[in-house]
Amino acid sequence: MTINATSQYFPRQVKILLIDDRVENLKPISDCLQNTGYEVRIAKSGIKGLKLLEQLTPDLIILDVIMPEMDGFETCRHLKTWEKTKDIPVIFMTAAMDTSNSEAKVKGLSLGAVDYITKPIQVDEVLARIKTHLHLRFLTLQLQQQNIRLQQEIRDRQQAEAALAAQTRRLALRSDIGLALSQETELSAMLFRCTQALVEHLDIKFAQIWTLNSQDNILELQASAGLYTHTDGTHAQVSVGDSIIGYIASQRQPYLSNDIANDPNISDPEWARREGTVSFAGYPLIVEAELVGVMVLFSRHPFSQTTLDTLASITNEIAVGIERQQLEQALQESQRWLKAINEANPNIIYVHDWVERRNVYTNREIYEILGYTPAEIQDMGNQVLSMLMHPDDLDIIWDHQRRIKYAQIGDVFELEYRMRHKNGEWRWLFSQETVFKQNTDGTTRQTLGAAIDISDRKQIELALRQSETRERQKAQALQATLKKLKRTQAQLIQTEKMSSLGRIVGGIAHEINNPANFIYGNITYARAYFQDLLKLVQLYQKTYPEPTAEIHQLSKEIDLEFLVEDWHKLIQSMEIGIVRIEKIVRSLKSFAKLDEAHLKPVDIHECIDNTLFILQSRLRSEGNRPEIKVIKHYGQLPPVTCYASLLNQVFFNLFDNAIEALDYQPVTRSITIKTELSTPNSTLPQSIIIQIKDNGIGMSDKVRQHIFEPFFTTKPVGKGTGLGLAVSHQIVVEKHKGEISCSSALGQGSEFIIKIPRILTTKKDTLVQSVNRHLINTF
């Protein structure tokens, strides 16, 4: 009969240990068990069996009774006293004659054996017995495991019930403390309810809470519950740093002790032993790194970690509650103080709600300034601005609303506006507003403002502005008069200069013109007289070929032949010289145009050339000074209607300045003149454009901005009057309705561009006319 040794009771292969000293006994039973499917291990003595069991844990042991050194009974005694093997079933194996000895059986069974099998063995019986005891072993193990699980379940349930009870107490504690913190409006009452909840739900001896008086640096007892409920004892006030309470405050760290009777930091251990107090827990009450108080608890039993964790959390809530109560008390006091200040303030204090579009608060000063009571302002609601604000100032308010909508806390805005007094008058107000309350999206909800009556100041400002306007007008008139005087002065100076020049030119013309006319008029007669004398000499030579010695000597001394030959050259050079003198006089007269006092078509190129002719002595090279080269790019210009004498002054001033600028230029000195006629335009009259450019030292932008101002000059004292360019600008711009501009850079020369209408139609300049008439009369 074959029995499966692994499928019915055990989820694994069953291990059986055979202990017998005789091989003939071991082999048949070992083979039988192995064939059945059991894992069999063999030990040939009791000692070896015990040694093998140090490494092996079999499910069943078959033990021979009679063995040397250590028999089966002794081996079984060791097995049953060993914790590892005491529950393993042991079956004794003995000879058939031994089974009749009942005492031996009783001894084996009393030692803990479960059965006997006899030799020679009966396989089916042995296997049946083994199966039975293995089944019992499995049931025993299963029962033990169920008992273990049941015990663990009981322990887990007890722990869960204890944890649930503790959690319930903690939740109740949190609930009571939360209610105390949220419901009580007075600090000591709130803290007393907190200490009561701690004593009730944590089963402690008593609890106390102090708050910090930061001004005096002391802790003041606010609440006590449990064994002690009074707050006026020796610990009513504790200095920070004194006793265990002050120590916790100074260190700002919790202090925990579950053996306070032997804790050196507890000041009265005898009291602790007498009262049966075992543990102490003290916590600093801190909000955002600021100490607000201290909480301590005394208990008859040690504090668990869960309780300590709960206390640490509750400590934060109580600290926040203390701070909130203190802030609320301070806020209430501040509100009372601010209200008293606002009511006594001589300015309007208000809070405006931009969502509701009304003032939610206004002090009584509004009645003094605008005549309305705060209640009347409140009754106006969101119509307060439209009812009281000046219509012209509403845009100021709407713009102010747009600016303040996204303002930040601390931003201050100022505005001035007019509001209607109850009597109908308009009062000027100056307001300063700042953000008082914001919406959840960060935009401004309410603004706090202060307004003062500036109506008197506005009247003063208006009078001051009117006075300033009058004074400004006077100053502008004086400035215009001064400017006009400067122009007149410059014009008079230039006129006097030209008058002097006219007298000089007149004197020169008078002194040169008459002798020149005498010379020029007598040259013809001199030539005729000389021809007559020459003919007479030639006739004498022909009539008297042999002169006397005296005549011969004189002819030789005067070199008669050379005299006759050179006479013609002499007369010719005299004619050229007198023509040149005449041209100089004509150029001088042409430059001054003393005979042209009215608008008249003139040749601009001739005016330029005459001016250059007068200045030719400064253009020629002289000594170490190189020549100034004049480069002309004349365009085809028609006659130009203008004041020729005035334009000659402009050309003279520009050429004179260019020559002086070129005095500092060592080589390649040049003045370039370009003229052209502007392109015809249907909207603008045709103009003449004259460009005069030099390659001199140039000038800075700062100097260039002032060159047309009267009396501005960069020349040394005595070398310049600062009138030339100022008068030139006046002549071109005012007299000829044209333009004159300058472009220059240091080291790159200067260029002046003149642009005047080709045909000028304007009123006659009486000053120029009188001056020119005077100059003409000089001649």
TrEMBL record:
UniProt-listed Gene3D superfamilies: 1.10.287.130, 3.30.450.40, 3.40.50.2300, Histidine kinase-like ATPase, C-terminal domain (3.30.565.10), PAS domain (3.30.450.20)
Catalytic class of the enzyme: transferase
Domain Histidine kinase: 507-760
Keyword Kinase: yes
Coiled coil: 143-170, 468-498
Residue stretches making up the PAC domain: 413-466
Domain Response regulatory: 15-134
Name listed for the protein in its UniProt record: histidine kinase
A Pfam cross-reference name: PAS_3
UniProt KW keywords: Coiled coil, Kinase, Phosphoprotein, Transferase, Two-component regulatory system
InterPro entries per record: CheY-like_superfamily, GAF, GAF-like_dom_sf, HATPase_C_sf, HATPase_dom, His_kinase_dom, HisK_dim/P_sf, PAC
Species whose genome carries this gene: Coleofasciculus chthonoplastes PCC 7420
This protein's record includes keyword Cytoplasm: no
Enzyme nomenclature, EC number: 2.7.13.3
Catalysed reaction, written as an equation: ATP + protein L-histidine = ADP + protein N-phospho-L-histidine
PAS domain boundaries: 334-393
Record-listed 4-aspartylphosphate modification sites: 64
GO molecular function: phosphorelay sensor kinase activity
